[in-house]
Amino acid sequence: MLKTRLLELRQGVLSKNDQIAERLRERFHSEGVLALNFVSAPGSGKTMLLERVLERLLRDGHRVAVLAGDLETDNDAQRLARTGALVHQIQTHGACHLEAEWVQQHIAEARWDLSDIEFLFIENVGNLVCPSSYDLGEDLRVVLISVTEGEDKPLKYPVLFNSADVAVITKIDLVEAVECDLELMKRNIRAVRPDMRIFETSAKRDIGIQPFVDFLIEERKQRFTFC
Amino acid sequence: MHELSIAQSLVDAVAEAATQAGAQRVAAVHLRLGALAGVEKEALLFCYDVATRGTPLEGSALIIEDVPLVITCEACGARSAIPINRGFACPACGKLHTRIVQGKELEIASIEVEVETPEEVADVEDTPA
């Protein structure tokens, strides 16, 4: 005879993703990899910022890999590969975010030796909503916002901005053209994440890239002093 | 929209727990959903119906408890429930030294399952032929 029973679970809906992410994080840490999850709206300039960052890191002899998430094309992966970095494409076929399991699969597929990688950049799918729920095992979540997107974007997408550790304002060469109030944008970022570290950059004009690169190097140094 | 992915993860987690408990069917799922979880309630309810088809959860009710966003202020000590779209400054003192204490939940609180109870089986066996 069937009887109804109440089972207490108190379990996160994404606990499976979180477990895989935690295992990835442990692996990255044991191999000395600083993992970064880049999130932003489509067109904020993730790929171009990454190009400039990769070029500088490679020039200084650092070992760098990129997992490039893209809905349908491998355009971004091709652009990034031209810098000379290790690049592997994650084509999501319409999925609007990356999940930890895919990161795990694609690292295996790429056959990378993690002990030979210092910085792993994960370029998430351009989307300001869905990626926020998924931990990918990263050390830092980096959110990009371009000056063309409007100062109030952080208030409109508080979930993602709150979940990020670092904000990079992009396309600052266009501040005057689009009449962006940069101070207001920064206030709005800090309104949803009070201690957020903010960088101001223009990948096209090569402005503000080096301070961001220095920050990444320093973050890695602090975590892996043994390397 | 990632609610379909969320619904699929939810169905997988519940089906696994139900199977472990020896349940035949799931009657209801109680979910705690924080205002800052980044999940749209109506979209999730719609996707739940789709994701449960052909599983032990088919036809079950998804009962969502809304968990408001609550912050505490480290400057003045106030504890406040706030809307998610106006920044996280303390409504009492205006300072930004706040900490989120709840509102990010995306948690399966409990499930109601239908199980074959051993007592009932024993009763049937004890009945004289």
Oligomeric organization of the protein chains: heterodimer
The number of E-state strands of chain A comes to: 8
Largest interface: A-B, 37 and 46 residues
CATH architecture assignment name of chain B = 2-Layer Sandwich
CATH topology term of chain B? hypothetical protein PF0899 fold
Computed over alpha carbons, the radius of gyration of chain A is 18 Å
Order of helices and strands of chain B: HEHEEEEEH
* Quantity of strands of chain B, as a count: 6
CATH class of chain A: Alpha Beta
Mean pLDDT over the residues of chain A: 95
Short description:
With 227 residues, chain A is α/β, with parallel strands linked by helices.
Describe, in plain words, how this protein is organized in 3D.
The complex is a heterodimer of chains A (227) and B (129). Chain A has 227 residues and is α/β, with parallel strands linked by helices. Chain A has a single domain (15-217), classed as 3-Layer(aba) Sandwich (Rossmann fold). Helix content of chain A is 37%, strand content 22%. Chain A is built from eight helices and eight strands. Chain A has a seven-stranded parallel beta sheet with strand order 4-3-5-2-6-7-8, with helices on both faces. In chain A, strand 3, helix 3 and strand 4 (86-91) form a beta-alpha-beta unit. In chain A, helix 2 (46-59) packs across helix 8. The radius of gyration of chain A is 18 Å and the shape is globular. The model of chain A has no long low-confidence stretch (mean pLDDT 95). Chain B is 30% helix and 33% strand. The longest helix of chain B has 18 residues, at 3-20. Chain B has helices at 3-20, 41-52, 118-126, and strands spanning 23-34, 61-67, 70-73, 79-81, 98-102, 106-116. With 129 residues, chain B is of the alpha+beta class. Chain B has one domain: hypothetical protein PF0899 fold (2-Layer Sandwich), CATH 3.30.2320.80. Chain B starts with a helix and ends with a helix. In chain B, helix 1 (3-20) crosses helix 2. The interface between A and B is large, with 37 and 46 residues.
